[in-house]
Amino acid sequence: MRTITWDDERDCIVMIDQTKLPAEHTTYHAETVPELIESIEMLRIRGASGLGAAGAYGVALATRRNDADDFEAFVDAVATDAEAIATARPTAVNLSREVDSLRGVLRSCTSIPEARERTLAAAEELADVDVARNKRLGEHGAELLDDGDTVMTHCNAGALATVDWGTALGVVYSAQEAGKRVDVIANETRPLNQGSRITTVELQERGVETTLVPDNASGLCMQQGMVDAVIVGADRVVLDGGEEFGDQGVVFNKIGTYKHAVLADRHDVPFVVAAPHATVDTERSADEVEIEQRDGDELRKIYGTQNAPPETAVYNPAFDATPMELVDYLVTETGVYEPPLDRAAFEAEADRATP
Ligand code: MRU
Q: What region does 208 belong to: left with phi over 0, alpha with psi -120 to 50, or beta?
């Protein structure tokens, strides 16, 4: 099934519950907006594109759970819910962007039944677009890979981080479809272990030979010549690096991505970022991007068992910033780009992307 979709019978959102993987393959029904927000915060649904779809379906859900006698009051109530959904996690631009796009649909409606019908139709369309553009992105990225290559990936930027197919792992699946054998080294991705809990599961389901490594082994793997390319996804790509990075763009992705870009540079391993234009934020600079800080207990405990004294101070950023100068290839649904990017030309490419 898709990572997230609409359950017509129960008239609510249904998603694969990624917090239960790999032990259980179960689904979770978000029947209310607070249940959706909790699901986003605790990473039942996650990954930039997955969050984008959650945002869109979330507005559709809000139109169903709000009732009001007059349309203006209804729009206000849905807008309040939409704002809470959009800000449930701050770093992936897709979440707030898709909520905003659905708000636009809402604004063009004139009655509650129309709003309910059209927001759900728009969310379904967006989910279909996500799958289609990931397939195109995958086909472009697959051209970078040769038969027999081994790709290292960090976190999970696969089908489970999107509606389906994935971005970084979509490149691997497209290479596989093109008849190339590509193996994957999956970094565990502490502290929430998306690499070991999620990436391994979906790669194995698709018959990709996968080796799990602790994050700390990735430098050694590159040193020993085990890696032909590092391919990661992105939560937000900005083209303006702001004060710290200047006119270089910056890729915000799972904590540890930057370290892998530096290691790849050191070992002459191509460092590839796979992300659709919907993840490119052309409006903000790197200075304006908030890196989500998560609860210290994600480090103080491991699966409920104490891993550090309860009072230990913790710094737990969920994402980091990789300057574009460390990115060899940026793969989108419109092609493969080699930084430094020609900003105007790259932005114009976004117009060729599926709306
Ligand atoms: O905290 P997560 O699991 O939502 O982080 C996910 C990532 O960092 C992915 O690499 C990114 O969202 C790209 S997935 C299309």
A: beta
